[in-house]
Amino acid sequence: MTQNPTLDDLAAQESALVFDRFDDDTAWAVGVALRAAARAASLPVAISIRRNGQRLFHAALPGATADNDGWLERKSAVVDRYGHSSLYIGEEFRAAGKTFEDSSRLDPSRYAAHGGAFPVIVRGVGCVGTIAVSGLPQREDHRLVVETLEAFLRRDNA
After folding, report:
1. Which of 4-8, 43-47, 70-74, 153-157 is predicted least confidently?
2. Is pLDDT above 70 for 158?
3. Relative to the CA of 155, which of 22, 75, 97, 144 has its CA 20 to 30 Å away?
4. What is the reported pTM?
5. Domain range holding 49?
């Protein structure tokens, strides 16, 4: 992924990173993979995976704080509302010369269009949840989710 992905790059990620199914076991396996990737790199992140509003996985690695949990909620709320990654929505507002905080008319204490939350998209169904990371700069949070999902789906489809 480029350092500053375009809207087309971000849309292509969403089109490519699609699950055939997403049940409790899948959520757990993705969460474990994300935690392992973050732990291997000593990243101070919190991780949340939700399906239809229900949290199926949560982990906090050393260095993550309660503030990261708030960011997870706010970034995931953006995905729930728009059906796109939180980075995509933030970039969409920036590309239009606006800020999400000033132009979305949404409460910034409940919504944050900062990278790190990605839609759980099930083939033939659509967006059913979120996979979110918080603790790094927003593009790095996003990259961690995307790279882990790419590896997970490659392995799952092999």
Report:
1. 153-157
2. no
3. 75
4. 0.95
5. 7-157
